[in-house]
Amino acid sequence: MTTTEAAGLPVSGHEAAPAHTDGDHGHGVHGYHKQKDEHLKRLRRIEGQIRGLQRMVDEDVYCIDILTQVSASTKALQSFALQLLEEHLRHCVADAAVKGGDEIDAKVEEATKAIARMMRT
Amino acid sequence: MTTTEAAGLPVSGHEAAPAHTDGDHGHGVHGYHKQKDEHLKRLRRIEGQIRGLQRMVDEDVYCIDILTQVSASTKALQSFALQLLEEHLRHCVADAAVKGGDEIDAKVEEATKAIARMMRT
Amino acid sequence: MTTTEAAGLPVSGHEAAPAHTDGDHGHGVHGYHKQKDEHLKRLRRIEGQIRGLQRMVDEDVYCIDILTQVSASTKALQSFALQLLEEHLRHCVADAAVKGGDEIDAKVEEATKAIARMMRT
Amino acid sequence: MTTTEAAGLPVSGHEAAPAHTDGDHGHGVHGYHKQKDEHLKRLRRIEGQIRGLQRMVDEDVYCIDILTQVSASTKALQSFALQLLEEHLRHCVADAAVKGGDEIDAKVEEATKAIARMMRT
């Protein structure tokens, strides 16, 4: 159990986490596990946007309007990634720091590379 | 039907298209119309990637591996947008230039704003 | 001298330019030529931001505040690029379309590749 | 002194830090302090690229070639930001995790917002 949970703080910087957030911690599941339902909802919404894009192409909607919708879907994917990353920093990376040893260096390097990939798209 | 289609060539945004690609203009069909199937195939592939992300979240895959997949989907969306944009420039924008008058200014401004939205995501 | 300049209007990429901006074409000057001073002013401002970043690092300013300034400089560079691109589309690309032939295809492909490079950074 | 330093590990995921890296730690200076010289060198190089852009505009270089140079400068700024961020995560964020309490939540949220700003440019 992390000090964070001991302090009973919301686990997401963006909104209060569900009441039972700490429920399955300690089983070695990743930080984002606690917000699984929220993540799945977000992803289903994005899946719907992609299907909407298929309809737009199929109905010969004006190019620029399709591009606007593509930008919206990309933004939604990026914000999903940011939330996942925040939970990762708050749990996996912070835990590695608490554990001590050199795991923190590997974790930070790994996270930075993931951020670089996100920035380059 | 354009010479391009007659020749059965891919009109991929990334290889030069034959000189006169304006065969079916005036029918008010947008440039991307001719590559509808290719676009729909791309979008179905992206839809599959988003469903793959749902499975990954559902199966508690490691955060960083999910982020890698999100970057791949974002890249795929961006490259779809780029191909759509290239066809838009090649057809709608070029046609406005040929027509003359100030439509070209509106078209270029509209395209630039779409590019700005794509860059900001 | 173009009507635009005669009218003393900014040919800013972000407001519609007057109908016929092609006054001085054929002199082989690139579209952005007419806004050289504005571009140089923008770039000098960005150069100042980069020197500001050096001062921040030198004075051990907090990492996050430096990152905020880096984002501002990147945004400024991107918006300079967008204005340059808009003028390029309005002049070089539009001219190729008017000339006819397959130059337009090469110009559009070249512009799309430049946009892709801008998006990937 | 952090466990990381105790373990005598390189402080940067990208290259071994200079021999004296730990020299001035403990004075409460930020992580990046140890790589000040490297950061200043990077920023001076970027400043030179921006001056190069001014020359290109002044000499009426072809728009697309200027855009290529803008992309290179943006990439250089982004990679400077990534290195700064990595050091921030490795020091400020990891230290907050070790200290315990709720500071880690504020630090992670602050870092995530900085990453979001970097991604949106």
UniProtKB/TrEMBL annotation, chains A, B, C, D:
Is-annotated flag, keyword Transferase? no
- Enumerate the Pfam families for this protein: Trns_repr_metal
* InterPro entries, alphabetized: Metal_Tscrpt_repr, Metal_Tscrpt_repr_sf
Q: Where is this region: Disordered?
A: 1-40
List UniProt keywords, sorted A-Z: Copper
- Going by the entry's taxonomy, the superkingdom of the source organism is recorded as Bacteria
User: What family name appears in the similarity comment?
Assistant: Belongs to the CsoR family.
What's the protein here called? Answer: Metal-sensitive transcriptional regulator
| Species name | Streptomyces coeruleoprunus
